[in-house]
Write a structure and sequence with these properties.
The structure is a homotetramer of 136-residue chains. Chain A is an alpha+beta fold. In chain A, 24% of the residues lie in helices and 37% in strands. Chain A has a single domain, classed as Hotdog Thioesterase (Thiol Ester Dehydrase, Chain A). In chain A, strands 1, 2, 3, 4, 5, 6 and 7 form a seven-stranded antiparallel beta sheet that branches. In chain A, a hairpin with a 6-residue loop joins strand 4 and strand 5. The termini of chain A are close together. Chains in contact: A-B, A-C, A-D, B-C, B-D, C-D.
């Protein structure tokens, strides 16, 4: 298990007329946190794409426990829950400004060759880094 | 079970640099389809809000089966899967322009008093309409 | 001058906690209306991109005259104001559900070769169509 | 003149299939920078709203000079260009990761009573702060 925390401040344009962070923004927050999590491990997602590998999202789940409000500084914890193989699985926890869990989520991603758009296994350099985390 | 189909054309600003409809837009498409589904049953969501009732999303799930592309005219089927009580449960299927299922989803919503922000039971007029569907 | 009207219904996720359509969505509505305007003339933007031509936005202006609300069915009029050359210039009017002008806008776009990312002149087939409009 | 710089990292979901930051996100970046600019002066926008004052955008302009790409860390400079009265006028410059100006923009905002939704003059405590900046 490897986790990384990212702070995100809720933007005005992300609220809705209920006065809450609109639920469609949580997958975007997960994405930001996932990208920072990967950067912290030494494989920024942007570099992966430049090397010809895409990581589309295969599925996602969110459980909304408490509303989040405009201008709150939330912490999004991205957790790589197991050694990646054909898929990379992450869980997320969004902590509101009172440090309560406001949302829990999960996503599965896969690795895709950008040219053929066919699935591929986890690239060697990522597997190498992740093995050091999961099987030290 | 009650279902309603809504056509949505993919906007350019909804694509990402992978060339796909970005996954964060699916919850927005579900929302559009849910709102049209409610309208087709005679209780538009806007009227519900004006009467002091909010319906926040409690959780959601999406399974992405095929990418969806810019300018595709997709059909989003919103399905009310059971008689609402404290919650209203919907399932969704997004059909791409070849009529293949590109995404399956689910959301649970609850009913909330807009003033107190406390959960409440399904309003009587909605329960009445839904009973005619589920227990005819 | 050539104009085309497109209906768009305001989505919940496009509102903000002021209860208005958030201003960042107007450029997206302009884009939807522009794309439908081009389709109505016989050169869908998607085909243009597939033929290797991109049309990025060079500048935009919006004047917000009246707020627009959730679930309103607005009409966005896209107006090609002059014969395109290196640029295509459009104006927009957004009519609210009472048929009042709620927003006026303008965008300039250019034509770009997708491979070289260099500007190019208006493609011949578009110029041909537009000449029939502007110099009949 | 008062200016404040805010760093924003481009999110994946903000790109489009052209591979650029989609132009509809610039108004959102301006908004983030404007809010941080106001916070730096001691009147966070969130507090203003809680005190019953809204600041809707009346108009905006953007000039896109260079594309901005995924994962770039841009700097958005928000500049209050004159002493606010009924309106607050800001200009913006977005610097890309090579410190080149990629976009220039302007917005005019007004002050609105949240209850009556009528325009009002710049609140006294903001005028006081801004006078110290503009007429020291």
């Amino acid at each position: 298990m490897y986790s990384h925390d990212t702070q995100i401040r809720v933007r005005y344009g992300e609220t809705d007329q209920m006065g809450y962070l609109h639920h469609s923004n949580y997958p975007r927050y997960f994405e930001v946190a996932r990208v920072e999590c990967m950067r912290s491990l030494g494989f920024p997602y942007g570099e992966l794409e430049r090397s010809g590998i895409l990581m589309p999202v295969l599925n996602m789940e969110c459980k909304f426990l408490k509303p989040i409000y405009y201008d709150e500084m939330v912490v999004v914890r991205a957790i790589i829950t197991q050694m990646p193989d054909a898929r990379m699985k992450l869980a997320y926890k969004v902590y509101n400004s009172q440090a309560n869990v406001a949302c829990e989520g999960r996503t599965d991603l896969c690795f895709v060759d950008a040219t053929t758009r066919k699935p591929m296994r986890c690239p060697a350099h990522i597997a190498h880094i992740m093995r050091a985390v999961f099987m030290p």
